[in-house]
Amino acid sequence: MLHNSKIFLVLTMLTLTLAGCNEKQETVLEKNPKTNAAPARAVETYAVQMEPVTQSIRLNGQIEYNPNQVVHYASLVNGIVTKTYFSLGDKVAKGQVLAELRSNELTGLSAQNKTLKSQLNVAERKLSVVESMFSDRIGSEKDLLEAQSEVAILKAEIDKVQSSLSFYNASSEKGIFQIKAPIGGYVVENNISAGTQISGNDSDLFTISNLADVWVTTNVYAVDLPFVQKGMKAVIKSKAYPDEAFDGVVSEISQVFDPNERVLKARILMPNKEMKFKPGLTIEAVIKKQLNDKAIGLPANALIFHNNENYLLIQKPDQTLEPRKVTVDVKDNDRIFIKNGIAAGEKVVIGNQLLLFSEAMNASRK
């Protein structure tokens, strides 16, 4: 019995000793918690990579119609506009009647055209007779040449008159002529209305452009000249479409400074497939130039400014978050470039990072 009591006493002491050790280990764990525990919520991150460093410049400008896709209509005759059938900005089809014009000159041209056609019929019949006589060797070559010349002259006169009337359709009863759209597109300029007196020396009556492509004319200041080169891609933005960006290409750069604005004019050609851009609309063009250097690139909104220093919030492989102080080498509008302090492949928090950064900093102080 005594032997069994000793064994029981030893076992009891071992049990108490082990329990005491476990209590000490649990206490240590409580006093030294993980400082950057992985957050329970989902974290949006960006895997950084080495990429060419870019610099951007913002150019202000406005939309203009492409003059290579424009027809300026000017009258060659005098007259009075009696009616118009279009307004500025209207879409018109080729051949559509845009206005009616009363003109004594056009009435005279129409009468002249009929007279010349009658004379041509007589001259052609005469030529037919002369050709027959020349074939039978009873007519001279001189008569044949004169008859051929007369027909050629009358045809040339008719072509000239019809060319002058090519944009008009006559109503012989009232002496009214219709001005038709020479091409399809949009009316981007209008200088006439009912009652307008037209002189052959007047400027364009109206201008039509199809607006399939438009020009973006921007101002380039001397300090920005190194950035802007022909052939560079440009991103077009407008307050009219704040959530959209449109692509264009720098097609021309003026070689002479504007004497009034002291700027060079750069022209950007831009497709206008959805017809969103109209002449006169103000825009901003962003042009990027790649430098001969590489660095870690990431969205600028990932940067956290804290106590006058820049930080990034890094998600480590074990999902914990590490606030890391960094030095920004180049800032380019919506991107930043860092050469040291972060490696390619690391993940940077880019969503809700301010709150997560605050939590991580507070946890590290405990």
Automatic annotation (TrEMBL):
Record carries keyword Kinase: no
**Alphabetized UniProt keyword annotations:** Coiled coil, Transport
Q: Per the database entry, which stretches of residues form a coiled coil? A: 106-164
A family per Pfam? BSH_CzcB
Q: InterPro entries of this UniProt entry?
A: Beta-barrel_RND_2, BSH_CzcB-like, MdtA-like_C, MFP_Cation_Efflux, RND_pump_MFP
Q: Quick check: keyword Transcription in the entry? A: no
Q: Where is the Multidrug resistance protein MdtA-like C-terminal permuted SH3 domain?
A: 295-351
Q: Record's family? A: Belongs to the membrane fusion protein (MFP) (TC 8.A.1) family.
PANTHER family per the UniProt record, alphabetical: CATION EFFLUX SYSTEM PROTEIN CUSB (PTHR30097), SLR6042 PROTEIN (PTHR30097:SF4)
The protein, known as: Efflux RND transporter periplasmic adaptor subunit
Protein's organism = Dyadobacter chenhuakuii
